Automatic annotation (TrEMBL):
Stretches assigned to coiled coil: none
Alphabetical list of Pfam families matching this protein: DDE_1
PANTHER family: PROTEIN PDC2 (PTHR19303:SF73), TRANSPOSON (PTHR19303)
Annotated source species: Cladocopium goreaui
UniProt name for this protein: DDE-1 domain-containing protein
Superkingdom of the organism of origin: Eukaryota
GO MF annotations in UniProt: DNA binding
GO cellular component: nucleus
Source organism phylogeny: Eukaryota, Sar, Alveolata, Dinophyceae, Suessiales
Domain DDE-1: start-end pairs: 1022-1149
Amino acid sequence: MPVRRRLCGKQLPPDGPSDREARKQLLIWLRDKWAAQRMAARNEHGHAKRQRWRASFAQADRPQILRDMLPQIPVKFARAARDILAGWHVEEPIVNEPSPQAYKGTGTMFRYSGSFSMIEHQPSLDLLAAGPSVDIDLLSAGLRNAPQVLAIWDDFQSWMTELGNKYRFERVSTALELHTEVTLQRRVPSIHLHMMFDTRDSAAMRALAPYLPGPCKRMLRPGRQVHLSGQSLAFRGCKPHISLDSSQARGRSVRRALDQGHFYLQVEKKGSIFRQTTCPAYQTFTVSPDWVTGLWQGDKINKCAEQHYVQCKRNIRAYCENLKYHGQKQRELYIQQQQAAAAELLRPLQKEPVELPEVTQLYLPQFTRPMHRRKFLVLNGPTRLGKTVYARSLFGADHTYETNCSGVLEPDMREYDVLRHRCVVFDEASVHLVLKHKKLFQAPPAEISLGHSATGMYVYRIWVWNVALIVTSNVWTTELEQLAAEDREWLEGNASLHIVCLCDTRLAGVPVHAMMPDAAAAEVVRLQQALVANRNELKGAYQQARRQQKRVQCCGLGPAARRTTLAVYVLSNYNIALAVRVACRLSTYKRPEDAGFPTAAALEELFLESPPTDWLEFGELAAQRAHAFLAEAATSDWVRDCNVLHGVAPSSMDVFLHWEHAFIGHQLDVGVPPRRYVNKWAQKWRARWGVRRKVLKQVVHKVNAFWRHLRYLYQKFADRDILMLNVDETSVGYTMKPRLGNVVAPAVAKVSSLHIVCLCDTRLAGVPVHAMMPDAAAAEVVRLQQALVANRNELKGAYQQARRQQKRVQCCGLGPAARRTTLAVYVLSNYNIALAVRVACRLSTYKRPEDAGFPTAAALEELFLESPPTDWLEFGELAAQRAHAFLAEAATSDWVRDCNVLHGVAPSSMDVFLHWEHAFIGHQLDVGVPPGRYVNKWAQKWRARWGVRRKVLKQVVHKVNAFWRHLRYLYQKFADRDILMLNVDETSIGYTMKPRLGNVVAPAVAKVSKQDRRGAWTYLSLICNATDVQGKLPHYLIGSKTRLTCKLLRAQKALPPTRLKIIAQKSAWTSAANMVQLLRDIGEVLKLYPGKQGILLLDCAPSHLPKEVMQAAKRQKVQLVYIPAQCTDVLQPLDICAFAGFKAFLRARHEGLKATSQHGLVNPLAWIWELMQCPREFFAQKAWRSSFAAVGCTNPPDPQVLHRELRELMDFPVSFPEGVKPTREEVQCLWPERRRMVYAYKALF
C-alpha cells in the first residue's frame, strides 16, 4: 500500500488559493509572460524594451490574453485565474445604467438585468405581436409558468441566500418583475431582478456612547456596514444598479427609507411576477400612506391601492375618497377625449349652415350694444332639420353650451363657464321650462340662482348677461297655443324671433324636396314659394314693428324731449324719480298701461344707449327747460317742508319768489310781479305737482312726523317681518248697559253702584261662612282670612317692586334724563348706535356686562322705538347739552387717534382740551388759555373715560408703512416669480437653561457654576414660508473659542451632520462675516429652486448693516428688507411666533438631559447634540406661513390675520400702502438714530 503523506498545519487547496495576493501574483506572471512573448516575436532585447511592453499591458485585451495562456498557467494560480476571468466577464444591462465597482453601507436595493433578461416564451411573444396595446397583467401571469423564468428565479434565490448568510443580512426582499418599457419597445418579454437588504448592528454606536445621552442613543441606530466587492455583487456576470440611495438620511429616516424599499418589492405592482421577503409589511414594520400614493402616482399599482390604504390605518377615508375622485375624473377625461375624436371624425361630413336673415338682422344685433335685458331665440320645426346644429354654428361649438331639456323643468347649467361660453342652447326645451325661469331667459345684468329645492342645498348661481339664449323645439307652437293668454303674451314679448324652420339647415341649403317623392316635393315647393311671397310683406311689417319698438324704447320721447329728460337726470345728481316725472310730462304715452309709458328701468336703458355727446352737451333749450323743472321740484320740496316741519302753508307769491330764486339763482331787483300773473303761474304749478290750495290744519305736520317715524322704522327693520301692535285704554263698567228689548214687567232687584268682591258666601244674604260653623272652625277661618289679607298686601308690594325692577331692566338702568341724553346722542351722531351704547354704559346703574339690564345695541334700539315721538323732536336743554359734550369728547378721541396713527404725534393735554372746546362750542373762546391745573384735571378724567394712556408715543407707524411699501414694491417687481419669504434673527442659548419651578425635597448635590449660568452661545435661526424649503435652510451656533474648544469640536464632528453649523470665533456675537456666510448658504439653497425669488427680512442689528452684507445679498440674488428700528416687537416673525416656543422646546430637552445625567450636570457635547436637532425637530416641523401673514408679509395682505398688537397700532381696519419704490427719505427712517447709511439706498436698489 502506498504510504500516505501526513498533512500538518493549514494546507492549500489543489488548485491554489484565490485571495488578493494570489490574484496579484497571477497578474504579474501574466504581464511578464506576455511581454516576453512580444519581445521574442520581434526579436527585441534589453531592460528598456521589457519595461515598455510591461507598461502597455494595461491597455491590452487582458481577458483574451488570460484565456490564451490558461494551459501555461501554473497549478497554484488555477483558481485565481478562474475567479479573475469570472470577474472580468461583465454583461451589459438591457438598459444603460451605471453600476458600482463595490458597495459599502448598511443597506440598499440592487437591480439586475443582462442577456438572461430576454425570455424566449412563445405565448408571450404571440401576445405582444397581437397589437399595440398589451395587457401587462396577462403577460406577467403567462411568464410565471415559463421554464426560463423559473430557472432564473431559482438561481437568484440560491445566490441571494448564500450572499445573505455570508454577510449576515438581517432583512432581505427579492422580486422578479417584467421590464415594461423594454418589453413594449422591443416586443420581446424582458425581465429584471430586485434585491433589497439591510443590517442592524450597534457597533458604530458604541464609539459615541460615552458622549451621548440616552435619548440620542434611541435616535441614532446606524446599521452595521458591509463591504461588497464587484465580484460579490455579480449575478450571472451582471453587475447591479443601485436603485435606492439612503446615504443622505440620518437617524430614524434611514430606517424608514429601508422599510420603504422593502415595501416597494412586496407590493404587487404592474408587471410583478415573483416576490419573496423575510420581513412582511404591516407585521415587521409600519407602512406610510405616502408610499402607496407614490406608487399609485407612478402608475405602478392601481387595483390594490385601496387595500393598502386600509391596511395603513391612517386617514383611510381621505385617501380612499381621493382614489374614487381620481377614477371619476379619469372617466370624465376619457369621455372628453372620445367626444373630441368623434367631432374630428364627423367634421368632414358637416356642411356650411344656411343663413337666416331673421337671425342675422333682428336677433344677433342686440348683442352689439348694452341692454338691460335681451330677448331669446326660438327655433321651431320638425325633427332632423338641424336646428341644434344651426344654433351651435352661430357662435361656434367651442363657445356654445348645450343642455338637454327634454322632459325636464330645471335646466342643468352647472358646467356653464361664463369665461368660455357665449351662447346657451336649450335643446328640446318646453314653454313651461321657460315660464318657470323667466329671469333666466331675460338675461339681466345680475346673477341668477338655479337648482332650488326645499332645503336649498344645491343652489348655484350663473351670469348670463350678454349671452345668447336659444331654444330648439319640435312642439313649441302647439304648447304655445295651449297656454293661458298672460303666459302666451309674456313669451311672445320676450322671444326675439319664433322661426318655423322648413329647410334642412344641416345640408348647406339643399331643399328637403330634393330627397322626397314627387308628391311631397311638389307640396314643399308650393310652401317655399308661398314663404317667398310672404317674405316681402313680412319685411314691411318688421319695419313698422321696428319703428313702433323704437318709439316704445324711447318712451314716446322725441329728440328734444330726450335731451331735456337727460339734462334733468344729470343736473339733479342722477335722480331717476325726477327724470321719470319730466318724461311723463313730455311723453306721447300718457296712460300707465301703455307699453311705452316712461318707467325708471326704461329711462335708465334709454340713457345707457344715448351717445356720450348728449351727456356732455344738452343744448341751450334742453338745459333751460331742465333748470326750470328742477326749480319747480325744489319749490315743491320747500312747500312740503313748510307744511310738515313748520305747519305753514306758503302763499302763491312766496312760492313764485322761491321758484324764481331757485331758477335764476338770485332775486330780481325789478319789484314784485303782478298778482294775476303769479296766480296763473301758481295754478299751473299746482296742477303739475299735485298741490292743493286750502287752509292747512295744524295737525298735518304732526301726522307727517308720525308717518316719518313709522317709515324710518320700516326701513330700519327691512330685513324682518313687521308686527304692528296697537294699545289703548277703555272703561268697562261693573255692569254692562242692557241692550234694547221687549219688557213686560220691571226688574225685581236693582244693581248697586258698586260690585264688591267679598270673602263671604254671596248666596246667603251676606252672612259670613264662619258664623254657621263651630267655634274652633270659625276661629281658624278668621285666622286664615287675616293671614290672607296680610299676604295680599305683601304680594302687592312684591309685584310693584318686580314691575319697577322689570321697567328698570327694560330701560337699561337709565332714568328719564339719562334716556333723553342717550337718545340725543343717538340722533345727533347720525344714528351711531356704538356711541349711544357708550354713553348709556356711562349713565346706567348697571355697570357689569353680566347684569340683566346692562346696555346693549339691541336693548337700546328697542328702548328708542318705545320712546314717544316728542322725545325724538325735543330732547330738552340739559340732555342736548350733555349729548353735545359727549360727542365733542368722542370727536376729540378720534382726533387723538388720527394724530397718533397718521402723523405719529401725541397731543398734549392743552391741545386735547382746546380741540374739545372747539368741538363743543363751535369756535375758540377769546378768553385766553385756561389754567394748566384745571386742564390737567379735566384731561385726567377724559383719559379715564375713553381709555387713553399718557406716555411717549413711539414713532413707529410711518416706519411700518415704509416697511410695507418696500415689501409691496418687491412683490410687484417680482410678480412673475414665486416669492420665498425668509427671516433671520439671533437669540442667546445659555450653556445651561434656567430650571423651571417644581417640587423640591432636598437640595441639589451638584451646583452649576456661575460662568455656566451666565454664559451663552448665539443661535442664528432662519425660517421661511415654504415647508419644502424649510428643512434645507442652514442654522448656525456661534460661540467663543474658550467654550467651543478643539476637543469639543472634534467630538462634535464625529456626530452625524445636521443643518446646524458650529462656528467658533473670538466672540459669540454675530459679525458681518457670519452674515456673508449665511447669505452664501442661502444662495446655494435657492439654486435648487430656480423659480423662487428670496426676500430676506432682518432687523437693524449692527452686524446686518455693513455694506459687504448688502453686496453679498445682491451677488446671491437675495432681496434684503430691513425691519425698521424699534419695530421688531411688531414686525419680526421670529420674535413674535418662534423664539418663545423655541426656548420652551430647549428647556424641555435640557430638563430631559439633566434627568438622565449624573448629579444633574449636562455634558456639553450632549447639549450641543440637542441643539443640532433643532433645525429638524423644531423649525422644520412647523409651517411658518402664518407667522409672515401676521406681520403683513403676504401678497395680497390680509388685515384680518394681523396679530393684535399690530392691528391696534395701525388702527384696525388696516389700510395697506401702495407698492411704489421707496425714496431715500423713507429708507433713511428705517435705520437707528444717528446712523448714517449713505451707501444703503444704492446697495439695496
